[in-house]
Amino acid sequence: MTSIKPLGDRVVVQPKPAEEKTESGLYIPDSAKEKPQEGTVVATGPGRVEDGTRIEMTVEEGDDVLYGKYAGTEVTLDGDEYLIMRESDIFGVVEG
Amino acid sequence: MTSIKPLGDRVVVQPKPAEEKTESGLYIPDSAKEKPQEGTVVATGPGRVEDGTRIEMTVEEGDDVLYGKYAGTEVTLDGDEYLIMRESDIFGVVEG
Amino acid sequence: MTSIKPLGDRVVVQPKPAEEKTESGLYIPDSAKEKPQEGTVVATGPGRVEDGTRIEMTVEEGDDVLYGKYAGTEVTLDGDEYLIMRESDIFGVVEG
Amino acid sequence: MTSIKPLGDRVVVQPKPAEEKTESGLYIPDSAKEKPQEGTVVATGPGRVEDGTRIEMTVEEGDDVLYGKYAGTEVTLDGDEYLIMRESDIFGVVEG
Amino acid sequence: MTSIKPLGDRVVVQPKPAEEKTESGLYIPDSAKEKPQEGTVVATGPGRVEDGTRIEMTVEEGDDVLYGKYAGTEVTLDGDEYLIMRESDIFGVVEG
Amino acid sequence: MTSIKPLGDRVVVQPKPAEEKTESGLYIPDSAKEKPQEGTVVATGPGRVEDGTRIEMTVEEGDDVLYGKYAGTEVTLDGDEYLIMRESDIFGVVEG
Amino acid sequence: MTSIKPLGDRVVVQPKPAEEKTESGLYIPDSAKEKPQEGTVVATGPGRVEDGTRIEMTVEEGDDVLYGKYAGTEVTLDGDEYLIMRESDIFGVVEG
């Protein structure tokens, strides 16, 4: 099976499908503000190097994360769509 | 119950509803300048790392804070609207 | 009474009313250059952190300061208008 | 045979041909997002110098890498097309 | 008498009147290039802080300095016009 | 004979003439991507200074180098055309 | 006699007149590329301060230097035209 080992502070995220319609099928824009997307981390890089020191990653495999709608680059692996983004593009980890 | 653990120097803020009308219902623009919004901090990240040292956060849960009208990204948790923003987007803490 | 504790190197300034008219009521543009505004510092933050060290603030409460016409964000406290700006937006302290 | 010794953190990549058509010959745009390209590293620089320390390269010769569609500069060596790009333009290494 | 204590690496300069006309009253543009203005330093800040160290100022009160036509912000003190600018806006000191 | 001693991390390069036509005289654009130019290093600066340390140059006199089409500034010495560019404008050294 | 003591890493250069015509009086554009100008250094600053250390200047009085066509600011001293520019605007020193 194919996988990607991200470089630096990049992570591979498997996005959850966006729910943009209500059950009755209407599109409801709640606000003009950008809403974050949700996904699951499937691979993380070793962290970026700053002034000779590697900064450890905060997120890990299996984390449910929120990120901006325009974060990352799409990549297809064995027919599934993933996103490669920098950890700094991740807003936070969803818990509970 | 769902919650978000912000990364780096991000905070989750529950905004207070803006009062843009007078009691009689008129919109009164006092000035062309951007006015800050007010909200309550409900979660804080661990702080960002600079040159290998983590900078501690200044705001904490329960703080009433002021922030710019365009700060942060909206996120919905269990039906409530929150904002995820960087601590540097916060102007100050309201007291008294 | 409500007050604001600014974060980082921000200060709260109570602006003095601009005098843009002569005594006889005429507007006299002396120059196309931006003229600084004058105000009084009413609260200061603890200073910003650079490379793990907090840089002490130079201005203090009660200082009369000059700042650019477009500096800061307006905020209303108990009916009075204030500006929250960074110390670096302040040009100098007026003395004598 | 001609070869290129890249400077700093640059790498020479031999790109794989993009498959933009289905077997029946139709172009299928899956998404408006930029898709990474895939190639094989054929030469790496010694790494860039930051604050007097050389940062070691992460990728090595023979690695299959993903990079942005607009990354790098084309160069022709003995009739074959290559790309010279910075290591930071590489998203990750494909494994398996 | 009113005076200004500049913050950081700012200086207060009293500009000399520009001579843009010849004695016979004609305007003579020598070149399309910006010409520096000349003025006298009347107050200097303590210098800016970089990495916890204060960088000493180079110019001092009484120095005749050259600066760009668009440098600084005009301020009126007791009826006289001054400019507040950063020391880095000053090209050099006129001697002799 | 006139020569140039470049400052900092600049190098003087004698460009090789571009071959943009086939032997039969047709212009063949292979790709919309920028193609690097090739030239020979004839002089190098001492290297730039970063944080008080001089970074040694990587290329040396006689090296065949690749650089971007828009890199450098043309200079004429004793009737010959050269380019002065920064070492960071050089992609790599051609060998073999 | 009037002279200028440049601040930081600035230098005062006396430009040589550009020769843009052939002997028979025709203007010959060799290339669309910017050509450097030549001049003689008549004064140098003490060097700029980086992280508390003064970086020594490389050029000195009397050096013939090349610089970009748009580098520096014109200044007139005792009727002669000079340019004040940063040392980093100088490409190299002409020798021989």
TrEMBL record, chains A, B, C, D, E, F, G:
Residues 1-48 are annotated as: Disordered. It comes from the Bacteria. Pfam families: Cpn10 (PF00166). Its main location: cytoplasm. GO terms for molecular function: ATP binding; metal ion binding; protein folding chaperone; protein-folding chaperone binding; unfolded protein binding. PROSITE patterns: CHAPERONINS_CPN10. InterPro entries: Chaperonin_GroES, Chaperonin_GroES_sf, Chaprnonin_Cpn10_CS, GroES-like_sf. It is found in: Cytoplasm. Keywords: Chaperone, Cytoplasm. One of its GO terms (cellular component) is cytoplasm. Belongs to the GroES chaperonin family. Heptamer of 7 subunits arranged in a ring. Interacts with the chaperonin GroEL. Together with the chaperonin GroEL, plays an essential role in assisting protein folding. The GroEL-GroES system forms a nano-cage that allows encapsulation of the non-native substrate proteins and provides a physical environment optimized to promote and accelerate protein folding. GroES binds to the apical surface of the GroEL ring, thereby capping the opening of the GroEL channel. This is Co-chaperonin GroES. It comes from Salinibacter ruber.
